[in-house]
Write a structure and sequence with these properties.
The protein is about 45% helix and about 15% strand. By secondary structure, it is α+β, with helices and mostly antiparallel strands.
């Protein structure tokens, strides 16, 4: 409800008849009363604090004894203002689905064939697609099976009601796991009633917050640190990778004044907090190259972090400027670089799968002999592949090929 000070506070958590819940669908292993209360807290807090949605989806997945779940808008992508908040599903997997398997998604196609979906509807495994059809599909053979997904319990939160975007909460199990049953259906029905209340409040209040929730969740799927800062350079949001780096306490910290800081300066460089303050106080026209970051020394025997920072424009492409976020800082460890997938090299440069593997092996520091041994081919065959790789990638030397592949890698911490 709205208050005279203009703020919004969500109503008190609704009363729960725990006896009814226990009789209907609680499972002593996953759905004890304490876990139930904590799950509801996360769901209702997310209505006014979108950054809580990843924790709410994770808690929902665990209440089914599952490691994977997805709260999403099936007909509207995050880039168009939709929602995609996963648990146990990597950003890489979501991108692969969107780029290569969305047209083969037999589950989504089955939902589309059913016509209008009613809020509160719950569909299981074979109600979606017969198992034999699923197992024969390209979607399962090439994608789902590699993700450890073979069973589904899908709950319809909204079904394109006026002013409310169609939204589903889906939990997944592997094919070897126990199938979902009647108790899971009842649990999902009860669960999505509360998810609908929280999402409904968020959507009615401000549809931009829906996009922000999806954005903040996507940051948690990145391998490098993302820290959003307010106008005074105080920390306003930290993604999962940045939290990991901070918890190490080996070079980075957040002060009592919510300043992102380093334990020391790097050589003659200022401490991180001083460097960030200088960016804040500097006219935008004087900001230097993006690569002119701040190096943060780590404890003895370890590499260093690199922090890069940029102001967010009034209408930035993420759609988050104008709220509490005025700057974004990225934290990377130059030694923690993850090479691209072979499929990406195949897509970008029309390499064969073996050519992509050869290129990746060189990028990983392998010699011709190492590549031949690891791929079980002769050194002469490796050289033949390299001759075909060069014109496709428009490079002329092995060193340039390595630089090209590394440039497509993903920095991490």
């Amino acid at each position: 409800m709205h208050h005279t000070d203009g703020s919004f506070r969500f109503p008190a958590k609704p009363h729960i008849d725990l006896v009814v819940c226990m009789d209907a669908c609680l499972d002593p292993q996953h759905r004890d009363v304490a876990a139930l209360s904590a799950l509801l807290d996360r769901i209702y807090e997310a209505a006014i604090r979108p950054e809580h949605w990843p924790a709410a989806v994770e808690a929902a997945a665990h209440s089914f004894g599952c490691a994977k779940a997805l709260l999403f808008t099936p007909y509207l992508s995050p880039h168009s203002g939709g929602l995609a908040i996963p648990c146990g599903i990597s950003e890489e997997a979501l991108q692969l689905w969107a780029s290569s398997y969305i047209d083969h998604d037999v589950w989504s196609l089955a939902l589309a064939r059913r016509g209008p979906l009613r809020p509160g509807m719950v569909l299981l495994d074979e109600q979606m697609v017969p198992q034999a059809e699923l197992l024969e599909s390209k979607f399962y053979r090439e994608f789902l099976s590699t993700q450890g997904i073979g069973r589904v319990c899908a709950g319809i939160v909204f079904g394109n009601e006026p002013g409310l975007i169609a939204t589903s909460l889906v939990v997944f199990r592997d094919l070897d796991d126990p199938p979902f049953g009647d108790a899971d259906v009842e649990w999902m029905k009860w669960l999505i009633s509360h998810v609908s209340r929280s999402l409904g409040v968020m959507q009615r209040l401000d549809t931009m917050r829906l996009s922000q929730a999806s954005l903040l969740a996507s940051f948690d799927r990145l391998d490098f640190g993302v820290v959003l800062l307010d106008a005074a350079m105080r920390v306003a949001h930290v993604n999962a990778a940045a939290r990991t780096a901070l918890e190490r306490q080996d070079g980075l910290s957040i002060t009592v004044n919510r300043q992102l800081d380093s334990l020391a300066g790097f050589g003659r460089q200022p401490r991180l907090s001083q460097w960030l303050d200088a960016i804040r106080d500097m006219p935008l026209s004087r900001h230097t190259h993006f690569l002119d970051g701040c190096r943060v020394p780590r404890k003895a025997g370890q590499s260093h972090y690199v922090v890069q920072c940029s102001a967010l424009m009034a209408h930035d492409e993420w759609g988050i400027a104008g709220s509490d976020f005025h700057y974004v800082a990225f934290i990377t460890d130059p030694s923690a670089l993850r090479l691209p997938r072979a499929e990406r090299l195949m897509q970008l440069y029309e390499l064969t799968h073996m050519q992509a593997r050869v290129a990746l092996a060189f990028a990983g520091g392998a010699t011709y002999k190492d590549v031949a041994r690891s791929l079980a081919i002769s050194e002469e065959t490796v050289r033949s592949h390299v001759k075909e790789i060069y014109p496709k990638t428009r490079v002329h030397r092995q060193a340039d090929l390595v630089r090209l592949v590394l440039s497509l890698g993903q920095s991490g911490v």
